[in-house]
Design goal:
Layout (H helix, E strand, L loop, with lengths): L1 E5 L4 H16 L3 E6 L4 H6 L3 E4 L10 H7 L3 H26 L3 E5 L3 H10 L3 E5 L16 H9 L1 H13 L7 H5 L7 E3 L16 E3 L18 E5 L8 H9 L6 E5 L14 E4 L4 H5 L4 E4 L3 H9 L4 E3 L4 H12 L3 E3 L5 H13 L2 H15 L2 H12 L1
Helix pairs in contact: 1-15, 4-5, 4-7, 9-13
């Protein structure tokens, strides 16, 4: 089987797919993976043939644009259309040469879905977040202001849709692009137990569990309780790092802080607090007792896989959905503020109340019962 695979320039959307890509290529299938240079090495290591999209007018790589996409539907649609049209000639040429039997596309790499529609190629959505339909989308809170803003932007959105139609893409409206239904074959990298409203999805949705990479580094546990803190690669509310240091300054906890791309704060660190640009997250989570997180889907899933309860501090609607589900299942506490008193109280509650650990263990059990990359491979093979 020959597969054309499309993804967005984001670690959180690329990394979960690599285990499946490796599983597919080792089974003899050929994968052409359309992505970006920063991911070339890991994609090729998984056995796929890498096709670069960097040289095209691809504005989603800009961090400011990426943040605005989640807030402004008209802007998101314009960016989607520009990106699709910028890649159109290249994808047309590559598709004609590759002749894929199947297109697999990240759920927000809409140009992959549009290519499948245009050339009538079987399509599979690769969903590294929760799967969303009219029921589970309630977890993505949107106020009345956001709804009104979207309605007001519809004329601009329709103008962009017409540009796609003129290039041969058979779309009637924005929902054709951004919304999957129960007839859309979809791989979801979580368990049915963790997925909100799982019973509302058809058997075309394959829940394979999170993609957990092996532990590669080492972490020495130097105290009875280890607190791990990571707020993702880009964190605007830097106050939380300073407040975490102060909250745990006079405690017996071992505190590990991973800054990601954030600049190191000029803070006097006590002996029990260590700050790193990055860590082997799998190694740290295998030893941690509590994880304070921004609730990215991958980070939350990795922690729960290792049965670590969470302190939840989401920054986006998508992260808010993850936080809501974790809290709903009893495996974490959501912070209402970044004050050191609230941080300290939440950590104490999770450490003292064993119910949070038991809930994390139950979610982990569901993850480990999923079929993983093997089940995803079998799902794809049945489609062709």
């Amino acid at each position: 089987m020959i597969i054309a695979w499309f993804c967005v320039p984001a670690h959180g959307h690329t990394n979960p797919t690599l285990g499946l890509v490796k599983e597919m290529t080792e089974a003899g299938h050929k994968i052409f993976y359309f992505s970006f240079e920063q991911f070339r090495e890991k994609i090729e290591k998984a056995g796929a043939e890498f096709i670069a999209c960097d040289s095209y007018d691809f504005e989603m790589e800009d961090k400011e644009n990426g943040e605005r996409v989640g807030r402004d539907m008209a802007f998101a649609t314009e960016l989607l259309v520009k990106s699709t049209l910028a890649l159109d000639d290249m994808i047309t040429e590559k598709t004609a040469r590759i002749k894929p039997d199947l297109i697999v596309s990240d759920s927000i790499a809409y140009w992959g879905k549009l290519t499948a529609m245009k050339y009538r190629i079987p399509y599979v959505s690769s969903t590294t977040t929760f799967a969303f339909n009219k029921y589970s989308s309630r977890y993505m809170k949107q106020g009345i202001g956001g709804i009104l803003k979207m309605l007001c932007s519809m004329p601009k959105i329709n103008k962009q849709i017409r540009k796609l139609q003129e290039k041969g893409y058979p779309v009637k409206g924005i929902l054709d692009i951004v919304q999957n239904d129960n007839e859309t074959n979809t791989i979801v990298y979580t368990s049915k137990e963790f997925q909100p409203c799982a019973d509302t999805f058809s058997d075309k949705y394959c829940f394979v569990g999170p993609s957990i990479r092996p532990i590669e580094g080492k972490i020495e546990k130097t105290a009875e309780k280890m607190i791990y803190i990571s707020m993702g690669t880009v964190m605007k509310n830097k106050e939380i790092y300073r407040n975490c240091v102060e909250a745990f300054r006079d405690t017996d906890y071992q505190v590990v802080i991973s800054l990601g791309a954030n600049e190191k704060e000029d803070v006097d660190l006590p002996e029990n607090v260590k700050v790193y640009p990055s860590v082997d997250q799998m190694a740290v989570l295998s030893a941690a007792d509590v994880f304070l997180t921004h609730c990215g889907m991958n980070s939350a899933s990795e922690a729960l896989y290792y049965e670590v309860p969470l302190i939840l501090f989401p920054q986006t609607p998508e992260q808010g959905a993850v936080a809501k589900r974790v809290e709903e299942l009893g495996a974490g506490i959501k912070l209402l503020t970044a004050r050191k008193e609230d941080i300290s109280a939440a950590v104490k509650e999770v450490l003292i109340n064993g119910q949070y650990k038991l809930a994390a263990e139950k979610i982990a059990d569901g993850f480990k019962k999923c079929g993983g990359a093997k089940a995803a491979r079998e799902f794809l093979e049945k489609l062709c």
